[in-house]
Design a protein that fits this description.
The protein has about 55 residues and is of the alpha+beta class. It is built from 2 helices and 2 strands, in the order βαβα.
């Protein structure tokens, strides 16, 4: 659970550590993350449902 006592992550919106432990310990600018994930364009895998990269 997140608290207001979190230390700001030194990487801020450029952070790539998505582990629960890291996210619980450090705060990140949430609005930047939401905007980035909404703008991502996904290319369908050519193997479809048989894709091994899940």
């Amino acid at each position: 659970m997140r608290t207001n006592q979190q230390t700001s992550c030194k990487y801020g919106s450029n952070c790539h550590d998505y582990t629960d432990h890291h996210r619980d310990k450090y705060s990140h600018p949430e609005s930047d993350k939401k905007e980035k994930t909404q703008n991502i364009q996904h290319t369908p895998c050519k193997y479809g449902s048989g894709c091994r990269d899940r």
